[in-house]
Each structure stands twice: as structure tokens, then as C-alpha cells.
Design goal:
Elements (H helix, E strand, L loop, with lengths): L1 H34 L1 E3 L6 E3 H4 L4 E5 L16 E6 L5 E7 L15 H7 L5 E4 L4 H9 L3 E4 L9 E2 L11 E2 L2 H10 L23 E2 L2 E7 L2 E8 L4 E6 L2 E2 L10 E2 L1 E7 L1 E3 L6 E3 L4 E8 L2 E8 L8 E3 L13 E7 L3 E4 L1
Parallel strand pairs: 3-6, 4-22, 6-7, 16-22
Antiparallel strand pairs: 1-2, 3-5, 4-5, 8-9, 10-20, 11-12, 11-23, 12-13, 13-14, 13-15, 16-19, 17-18, 19-20, 20-21
Length: 334
Amino acid sequence: MKKIVFILLICLVAVLLIYNISNKENDQILEEENENKILSPLSGISASISKVERRPVAVMFDNHPNARWQAGLSQAEIVYEFFVEYPYTRYMGIYLINDPEELGPIRSARPYFITTLLEYDPIYVRAGGSEEAKEYIEQLEIADIDGLTNSEDAFFRNTKVGKKSPHNLYTNMENIRNAQIGRGYSSTGDYEGFNFYEKDTEIQGDNGTTIEIKYNRENSTSYIYNEVDRVYERYKDGEAHIDEYYNIPIVAKNIIIQQVKTKPIDNEGRLEIDLVDSGKGIYISNGKFKDISWTKGSKDGKTMYYDEEGEEIFLNKGITWIQIIDEKSDIIIE
């Protein structure tokens, strides 16, 4: 009997030793993984150094009703929604740490998108553009990947989604990165990111769990706060906004509404949007909103967002949607 007890004690000690060694090894692995990760300057999300230190990518997304929904848009860390020709809007997604397997539909450039992307020094992915935008790209020597002229082999017509040209031009991040290398573009970008809270923070402000932005009578964007996941679920023209490829809801941790001056400049309805300027805005996160202001001093300067005390705002870590709207657009927040 004593021998059995002794053997059992030895076995117990051995198990404890193995358990402790295993835990130490796991802790060491976790420490090593954490040491090799840093925060993305675009979202504050932790990712490998190799991904965070590479060059951002700015992708133009078609938002015509015949183009919906978009593939890979959920993987962008920052997304802008701008007016284009009435009554439509268009998206520009900024990518760094994620590598979507499908992106699209891809659409054309406008000058104000370029003024915005200069803040990120990215690879610019598009399909053509207005004449002014194309001149702008050439003059500024933008690292450009155009599906209509200089990198057609990086794009494909997606015949599986039931869309017709021009609303079916797609690509993926692997093709973009390969085109970046093939065209000799720099592997890193020179830009400044956002400030982020260390911990998830409830901002000081009024309740904002439902947001509706009316771009015009035929075009609206809405958000509804999901209290469980602490993100805003996105709706476009009254329909839930879904990622076409990943089949997941489009969500935002932060929403910035930036009010700007706009005016039509030609018979096609193309617009001039004053981004090198200053104005009012709203910051929304975690069910709260507060008034802010914005300023951009030069075309390649960073847009700065300030609270009412004049301090640069901090964002919560996660995806940010920046809604560029006209000063006369209707905003309903409840």
C-alpha cells in the first residue's frame, strides 16, 4: 500500500512539473508574440511589425446601387464616404494590417479623394478617374495602380456576383502588393496616424445610439449601436451593409462626421470639395457623441480633429468611418 501511495505521489509531482513547464513555455510564446506585435497607426489594433511597417493601400470602391455590396470593405481600418455625382457617394478604404482575398468593385478617382489619401502616402488602387484627378495623380507622382491603364493584370472581371460592367471590376491584396513591387514603389509610407485610448473608453457626450446621415433625398447612411459588441452596425439606404465576400456586417468602432463646403463644377455634376479648410464635425463612439472641429492646412497635410477644448481627439481602437458631408446635409442622432 505504501508503495502505491509513493508511486502516486511521484506521478502527481511529475504532472505538476510538466504542467508548470508547459505553462512557462506558453507564457514565453505569448511574450514573444506580443514582443513582435505593435499597434497599427490607423486603427490601434495590434499586428505584426512586418504588417504595421509596410505601406498603406487606399482602394476606391464603387457604391452605385448596381455595385452593391462591396467585397473586402470590412477589412479596411479607415473608410471614407464622399459625395460624387448626384445622387451617389463613393468609398475609399485605407488598408494596412489586413490582406483581403477579394476587393471590389473598384471605381474611379476624384481630386478630393487624392487630397485625402495624401495624408497616408499609400499605394492608390483605382479604375480611371476624372481628367482633373488623373492630372493630379501624375503631377503629384502618386504610387498608382490603375485597373484601366497601368496594371490591368492585377484586376479581374468578377462574373460570379451577377454584376455588369463597370460595376464588376475586382482585385485582391496579393495582386496589389505584387503590382507594388513590380512597379518599383516604395515598400513603406511616410505618414502620421491617429491617437488612441489605451483602454476602451466612453467619451464624454450625449447619447448617440442611432445615427442617420442624409446625403440627399436618394442617398442616406445610418448606424445602429450594438451594445453587446460595442460597435455601430452600418446601413446604406435602409439596408444592412454587408461585406459581399466575407458575408459579415460592416461595422464601425468610431464614426467621424466632417462637414465641408461643396459645389458642382461641370455639367456632369462633378464636385469641388473644400478639404484644405476648417469646419465643424461630430465624433461618435460607444453610444456617445460630441461636437468637434477639423482643420487641414495644406493638400498633403494631415486633417486634425479637435474637441471643444481645442485638444486633439483620441479614438477608441478599431475601425473608423469618416463621413464627409455637405454643411447643409441633414444629421439625426438619437
